[in-house]
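From the shared-data thread, chain only:
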Amino acid sequence: MQQWVTQIADKLQQRDWMLATAESCTGGWVARELTALAGSSNWFDCGFVTYSNTAKHRMLGVPVELIEREGAVSEAVVLSMAEGAVRNSDARIAVSISGVAGPGGGSPEKPVGTVWFGWACEGMPTRAERHLLDGDRESVRRQAVEIALRGIVSCLDGAV
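Structure, as tokens:
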């Protein structure tokens, strides 16, 4: 994961941008990886750990109706989370994650391992991806962190 973090740091510093995270199932793990790098205060603004639906609404402004209609683990919600993280911080790029890490909580429509990611980056449309990850809770969460970090690099590579 360190190679992704180093790339993110370099790309953000080149642009003089700040980054924010909005995490649910990863519980702040992405922010932890990012801030493990010395000097991260130059480019990491804040991390929102919004595990509950109430926190998603209160901290990020995700509409309650959207959560009720689409569910917390959905494209619409992670898009709103990422945009809310940018809106409620000094960041110009943000990543959001919401998923079913297990071992329980899955459904036929959203089985354990279903994780949605959102990336909001200045100058680009906010985008989302759904992944179905294998393994136990720890493995699902670790894979989610790696996907989130790779996605940040991808967004920064495409940013104007």
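The first strand starts at residue 19 and ends at 23.
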